[in-house]
Amino acid sequence: MPKVKVASVKENKEEKEKSEKKSLERIVLAGTFLLMITAAFLVYYFQPDFDLLNLNRMSSVGGMVLIGITTALLVYKALFFLYSVYLYIRYRSIKSVSDEELPTATVIVPAYNEGRLVYDTLLSIAGSDYPHEKLQLLAIDDGSKDDTWFWMQRAKDKLGDRVTILQQPENKGKRHALYRGFKMGTGEIFVTIDSDSIVKADTLRNMVSPFVVNEECGAVAGNVRVLNNKEGMIPKMLNVSFVLSFEFIRSAESMLGSVLCTPGALSAYRSTAVFGCLEEWINQTFMGQPSDIGEDRAMTNMIMKQGYHIKFQRNAYVLTNVPEKYKGLYKMFIRWGRSNVRENIMMSKFVFKNFREGSKAGTRILFFNQWLKIVMAYPVILMMVVFIATHPLLFLSSTFLSILIYSSFPVLFYAKRYNVAESFWAYSYSILYTFGLFWITPYAIATASRRGWLTRG
């Protein structure tokens, strides 16, 4: 068969797959709206049943206690949300300083089984608008079993002395790869970037500028967006979710100098702050086992404990790959959940002490909010099971209506910041999380001591 004809058949097949994918996405979005609109009607239709249920609850001590706790939690959540909105409105990114003011920086890229992606990552970093004489780029292959090392060598051939490539003798985990980079780095600022991520030209200079203008700044979190958001529904959902998580939540946390996690995809650290906790970080254990997950959250905690402020830079973008399938998604969330449990325990050891100068009330409110999510995980699951068993239709209708109400904020937030059409994936994501990922936090709590990256392949 002629090559032209083969290429044409392949293109037609790809076009057909794209068309089918778009049709499925439209069906999912339409189904999402249908479910929520139906739920709103059912809540109206079953209003007498809801009234009777509330009357029955109010007639018993247990029911009154439940109503009181639920009301108190809702009031707290509303107040916390308004507080976050206030902080978000006040937030401003730090503008880039001049070339002369920029400090020396070491960028560390750990990689494991990333293949061609690491090549693209290194080239995007090398293409940054940052003085070459002030930039050190280290790429570390953590014992990959695929062609990652080959692509690192390709990057070395293209970039020459601008990049140093290193190979771990065996896979020891991301934390150990970063540790090697920290020990070799000569920059005043360390920047860590995941090997499946692409940075914009001004990202590096925007990331390091807060350290120049604020001596109290010890770490900076970058603004993470999804690179493969055209490849499936889950990446589209996560892209909307990431915008809320970073541009709203971390903006608010940044105003308190207490961003709780500098993400692995893009973070920057003052070198003196890193060396102030490096050995504790690499030797960290949990329940007697070496910690091989949550290296980003652990580093954030240990730097905060030294008295530094942790900031967020909304103008420092990185595009990173996320799971496209449900299995990869829940494994990633389990790893994040276990890290969250571990590091909240660690944070509890210093957050109520005089760990830094100035007000610490905001940091403690953030800490309390994190613990509230953990503490309420099992009671919420229990109440959900009981509600489903006794009043399944009331549960479904009220849940879908709640999703419509509470998810409208991330929809509006994303629509205002970026794109109206894409914003509606926030509704679908909330449904997926409520019915398909609700078990993550309870499971992560129960298995917090387990090791393993889960999503590495």
UniProtKB/TrEMBL annotation:
It is found in: Cell membrane. It holds the Pfam family Glyco_tranf_2_3. Gene3D superfamilies: Spore Coat Polysaccharide Biosynthesis Protein SpsA, Chain A. One of its GO terms (molecular function) is hyaluronan synthase activity. GO terms for cellular component: plasma membrane. The chain crosses the membrane at residues 27-46, 66-89, 371-389, 395-415, 427-446. Keywords: Cell membrane, Glycosyltransferase, Membrane, Transferase, Transmembrane, Transmembrane helix. One of its GO terms (biological process) is extracellular matrix assembly. This is Glycosyl transferase family 2.
